[in-house]
Amino acid sequence: xxxxxxxxxxxxxxxxxxxxxxxxxxxxxxxxxxxxxxxxxxxxxxxxxxxxxxxxxxxxxxxxxxxxxxxxxxxxxxxxxxxxxxxxxxxxxxxxxxxxxxxxxxxxxxxxxxxxxxxxxxxxxxxxxxxxxxxxxxxxxxxxxxxxxxxxxxxxxxxxxxxxxxxxxxxxxxxxxxxxxxxxxxxxxxxxxxxxxxxxxxxxxxxxxxxxxxxxxxxxxxxxxxxxxxxxxxxxxxxxxxxxxxxxxxxxxxxxxxxxxxxxxxxxxxxxxxxxxxxxxxxxxxxxxxxxxxxxxxxxxxxxxxxxxxx
Length: 311
Prior knowledge:
With 311 residues, the protein is mainly α. It has 15 helices and no strands.
C-alpha cells in the first residue's frame, strides 16, 4: 500500500510496519526471557529479587530493570511473569518504571542525542521515581490498602539461592528437548501480553495517521501548558522506547524543554494503556493496575516542571 493512500490508510499501514520493525527484537527477547523464567522455580525468583519486601529488594528490582536491555514492550512480558513467580507488586512497579528507556543501549543514545549531563539527570530522576513508587506500594500493602501478591511464597531460612542454582544447573541438560520446552513456554506465556501489545500498536498507528509527529517539537514548549500537553500526548500515543528517545530529543533541542523531554520518556511508561491492561489481567485487579499512573504521574510532572525551570 503506498504511503499516500487515501483516508490515511497508507500512513496507518506504514506506521504498524515501522513500529514492528522497531519492536520485534524486544518482543522476541522478551518472549525468550519469559520462557526461561517460566522454568525457574518461584523460590529462585524470590531469592534473587529479595526474600523480604524492603528497600534492598526494591533496589534489586530497579537494578534488574536498568540492566535488562529490552524495550518497554519486551520488559512488560518479563514484569508480568515476575508477578506470576511471586514478586511483590511494589517490586514489579519499580522494575517496570526503571526499565522502559533505562536499558544500557537507550541510555547511551540519550547521552549522544541530548548530552551526557542531561542523560545522568534523567537517569537519576527516573530511578528516584521507581524507588519511591515501590516504597509507597509496599507501605500500602503493609497497611492493608493493597492486596499482597497471592503467588508469593515464604522461603525457608536454610534456602541459599546460588547453592541451589548451581545444583539445578548441573542437573539440567541443555539439549533439543530443553530448547523446545523454552520455545513452547515462550509462546504460551506471552499470549496474554501480545494481545494487548498488538492492540496498542493498532491504536498508535491510528493516532499517527491523524496527528503529525512534528507537533511535539513545535507546539510543546517549556511552559506549564506545554508540559500538560506533552503528558496528554505521551498518554494517548503508544510509542516504543526506541521511538520515544528521538522525539524526546526533539523536545530537548528544538522546543528547548528538557522537562517535557523527561515527561515524554517517563509518562509513556507511567500511563501506557497497554501496561495498565496487562497489569490488570495479571493481578486480576483494575485498582492495582491504576496505582501505577496515580503514583508516578505527579512525580513525573513535578520533576518535569523543575527541569524546565532549571533548564
